[in-house]
Amino acid sequence: MKKNTFIYLLTDIIDLLEKGEILNYGKRFSPLTIRAYKQLRSGMDHYNYNFNIEELDLNNVNNRKDRLKVTRKLQSHVNGYLNLMLDDCKHPNTRKTHLKNIRATLMKAESYYGYVFPKLQSMRELQTEVIALTPDQVEMIHNNNPGEELENIWYYTRLMLYSCMRISDLTNFQATSDGNTVTIITKKGMGSLSTFFLPDDVNSYIAKNGTFSWTLKTFRRGLEELLQFYPEFMQSKTVYTFDHEGNPVASQQFLYQLIKPHKLRSSGITYHLSKGLSEMEVRRISGHANGSEAFYRYVRHSDTESLKKQELNHKLLIKS
User: The pTM is what?
Assistant: First the structure.
């Protein structure tokens, strides 16, 4: 493999990440992040796609005309790879992730080796509806114990709703409590610390059982079984996804199929806001930074109360 190719650079960056020679604010990158870089390398190997990087280094360019040529050349190389994924019917979000990791690889090479690469264009954002439990549905779960068989998943689901945790943090967190106030310390990225209210019964159960041996697969399966216990989630809903070209496709799915573990994060955020907590207070719980696009995407989703207000305003307008 030539040392001046992107795949060689990507392989080298992966090796540096695994050795801890490239750090994320003083901490090692998570295995999940490193796996994403490996998936990019696997994808490029699959399509037997590679390109030269030395000719893309702006350190070797002296005038604006040549800078533009290098910029177009890099974008052309990356578009060639994305087009192969498009022809292979890869989902837009998959292509977007690979583009993000190409960009991240080049940025790490700039910091570690001193390259200067042109900036890459971003893909068009596909805004799908954010699926989340309504505040009423959250309270229904909190107030209805499904029985001993589902009790374990019920308590940890309620923890997820109160804490707005990421599902990846569920298997690796520490919890301390002072009465009903609980502090959760997670280890994702730089680590996250949040303090929030937790009912006595949930607090006691978590203190007794700690970090349960969850995997994403077992929690997803358990959550689906829990939601099927409640008739509310046996209803169907029309949802829109995108095909590999980015065209919207409508389908009918049951609510219990739509509420995946990560949806509990957006559900918890929505629930806290509905109870009068400010955005700043909720961000302290969820760990979102001020102005976070992800946070505002969670809270923008259309809920029943919002639709009722729209209908009421419309009726008042007609009467006037």
Answer: 0.68
